[in-house]
Design goal:
single chain, alpha/beta, Leucine Aminopeptidase, subunit E, domain 1, Aminopeptidase, 16 helices, 19 strands, manganese, Peptidase_M17_C
């Protein structure tokens, strides 16, 4: 879905954003009739409050949008996205009340509020359009919003229409749009080309497993993005209960997010050599499914004891990370809907990440605040390494005990890479509708990474 701004026009409706502290000044700027109308309607500039002021002909002369207090705004983000949903049909232009990062967030939130997943049922048309505010990079904002829409569309599509082949099709379409190159290793070729754990996880499905390898850019540091592409996860022979399986179409959320991030990077023409690796599989149940207590040998040569077939994401990522590491990239970033433990730790609204680099963590934290894409650093706690060492093999894919599940999964992945590395354990789903984020698939962490890349890669 293309999310973009309206063209400038003479009949646009002025929109004034009013901070609660500036209410008196805003009212003083109105005509006597406008001020009387606002007071009669009880406009207090409360966060999200919207008031249309009529002209003498009864048409909308301008709109006031309450911006509340700083404390009220801190309880959420994309408040202008919520306001946009309340406005009558028309084309609007923000004329006062916002500047700098606040204006950029407002513009992005407005575009994101236009997102509708309408593949299977018609959606209500967006009727409140926004002219790009002066002072923002309108093209960049539209590229970011449209890339987020791609991520949402991919996650929202059910597994019946988003298997490994369809995920490959989406990657091919994206690469074609931006002149990238893509290579795909499929089915039994995964074994002959030494991706044994990707093959093992996906072999029970009639939809062949594969590794997608997309490249773009000729100069600059090599940035490799690795996204978990488990298009549906039954849990394998350790089958999930129904309540846990219900959202497993989103288990390819890491792949969807790195494709969205790749679209941002390519669309903005960043000076990097970009590589995107996506192991795309279904974790299905069949006579050929891998079993608890199996021991697998990875691409890196490390052996892995399978103690839970539902901890499959780290297996496919491990082979992909090893492959990425063979080129010694400047930075590898993996994104995956990897553990429920991460959701328990930080909830669905924050993207937890792991890195051994304090500088990278600082850059991500600062960027996340600037672009309203919250992240939180989690610890690569080395003393927990013993928890993933079962004795009978080099590594355990699912250590028992029920503690530190996200950390041990991250430590498992770290064993397969020596290059500078950041791992995101995301949720990829908005459980309750929020401003600019309808219930359903959602990108997490991509905008923070994009904003941090100049420092992460010394661009």
């Amino acid at each position: 879905m293309l999310l973009t701004f309206a063209a400038d026009c003479d009949d646009s409706i002025p929109l004034r954003v009013v901070d609660h502290a500036a209410l008196d000044a805003a009212l003083a700027d109105l005509s006597d009739a406008g001020r009387a109308w606002a007071q009669a309607q009880g406009f207090t500039a409360a966060l999200g409050q919207v008031l249309a002021l009529p002209d003498t002909q009864g048409a909308i002369a301008q709109v006031l949008v309450g911006y509340g207090t700083a404390n009220a705004r801190a309880r959420g983000r994309f408040h202008m996205g919520a306001a946009a949903a309340k406005l009558p049909a028309g084309t609007y232009k923000i004329v006062a009340g916002l500047a700098g990062p606040d204006l950029e967030e407002a513009a992005l939130g407005w575009l994101l509020s236009q997102y509708k997943f309408d593949r299977y049922a018609p959606a209500k048309a967006t009727i409140a359009q926004l002219i790009a505010p002066e002072g923002i990079d309108a093209e960049k904002t539209a590229i970011i919003a449209s890339a987020e829409a791609l991520t949402r569309d991919l996650i929202n599509t059910p597994a019946s229409d988003m298997g490994p082949q369809e995920l490959e099709d989406a990657a091919r379409a994206l690469s074609g749009e931006y002149g990238a190159k893509i290579a795909v290793i499929t089915g039994e070729d995964l074994l002959t080309q030494n991706f044994p754990m990707i093959h093992t996880v996906g072999r029970a499905s009639r939809r062949a497993p594969r590794l997608l390898d997309m490249r773009w850019g000729e100069t600059g540091p090599l940035l490799t993005l690795v996204g978990k592409g488990v298009c549906f996860d039954t849990g394998g022979l350790n089958i999930k209960p129904g309540a846990s399986m219900g959202l497993m179409k989103k288990d390819m959320g890491g792949a969807a997010t790195v494709l969205g991030l790749a679209q941002m990077i390519m669309g903005l023409g960043l000076p990097v050599r970009l590589r995107v690796l996506i192991p795309a599989v279904e974790n299905s149940i069949d006579g050929d499914a891998f079993r608890p207590q199996d021991i697998l040998t990875s691409r890196k040569g490390l052996t892995v004891e399978i103690n839970n077939t539902d901890a499959e994401g780290r297996l496919v990522l491990a082979d992909a990370l090893t492959y990425a590491d063979e080129e010694m990239p400047a930075l590898v970033i993996s994104m995956a809907t990897l553990t429920g433990a991460a959701r328990v730790a930080v909830g669905p609204d924050i993207a937890p990440f792991y890195t051994d680099s304090d500088a990278a963590a600082t850059a991500l934290g600062m960027a996340a605040t600037t672009v309203a894409d919250p992240v939180w650093r989690m610890p690569f706690h080395t003393p927990y390494e013993t928890l993933i060492e079962p004795g009978v093999a080099d590594l355990d894919n699912a250590p028992g005990g029920g503690m530190a599940g996200s950390i041990t999964a991250a430590l498992f992945l770290r064993r397969f890479i020596d290059s500078p590395y950041i791992h995101f354990d995301i949720y990829g789903w908005q459980p309750v509708a929020a401003p600019a984020r309808p219930k359903g698939g959602v990108g997490m962490g991509a905008r923070a990474i994009l904003a941090a890349l100049p420092k992460l890669l010394d661009l």
